[in-house]
Amino acid sequence: MNLSNLKPATGATKTRKRIGRGPGSGLGGTSTRGHKGAKARSGYKNKIGFEGGQMPLQRRLPKFGFKNINRVEYKAINLSTLQKMAEEKNLSSIGVKELIEAGFISSSQLVKILAKGELKAKVDVQAHAFSKTAEVAIAAAGGTAKKL
Question: Distance of CA 30 to CAs 44, 46, 70, Å?
C-alpha cells in the first residue's frame, strides 16, 4: 500500500446529480422539477405560510385578544428568597442592587415582593411593588417595606 493506490472506503462517496444535462443522463427534460406550474419555473420562491392557493392557516383562524400597551411586567420575588439571602449573606437591607448581584433579576427588570414563604429576619426591603400580605409579613418580622 502506498499513496498511489489509496482510495475511500466503498460507499463512502457518492456522485452528485448532474441535473439538466440531456436525456441520456436520465435527469434531463424536466430536471427533477415535475411538469409545469410555478415550482417548475426559474425564479420560483415559496412564501412562508403559502399553501398552494388554499386559504392559509394564519388567515383561517380568527383574531382574538389584545395587547395592553400600558402593562407593567414585574419579576416576582418571594419572602422565602429574601429570608435565604438574609441568612446566607447576613443582610439587614435588601434592595434591587442586592437582587441583581445575587442573579435573581437583571438591571432592567422591576421587582415585586410576594408573600410566599416565611420571613423571620428583620430586613429593610426596597422594591418597586409589594403584595399586601408581603408588606404585613415584613412589618411583622420587624423590617420595613419601601416602594421605589
Answer: 15, 19, 57
Query: Residues 10-30: pLDDT tens digits?
Result: 999 999 999 999 999 999 999
**φ and ψ at 51, to 5 degrees?**
-120, 40
CA atoms within 13 A on the CB side of 86: 21
Say if residues 81 and 113 touch (Cβ distance below 8 Å).
Answer: no
Answer yes or no: are the C-beta atoms of 125 and 143 closer than 8 Å.
Answer: yes
pLDDT tens-digit map of 85-98? 999 988 889 999 99
Of the candidates 117, 131, 78, 110, the one whose C-alpha atom is nearest the C-alpha of residue 145 is: 131
Under a CB-based contact definition with an 8 Å cutoff, are residues 122 and 92 in contact? Answer: yes
Q: Among residues of the chain, what percentage have pLDDT more than 70? A: 100
Closest by CA to 97, choosing from 126, 124, 70, is 126
Total residue count of the chain as it appears in this document: 148
Place of cell 403584595: 131
Q: Looking at the DSSP assignment, which residues form a beta bridge with residue 130?
A: 113
How many Å separate Cα 98 from the centre of its chain?
26
DSSP string, 116-127: -S---S--EEEE
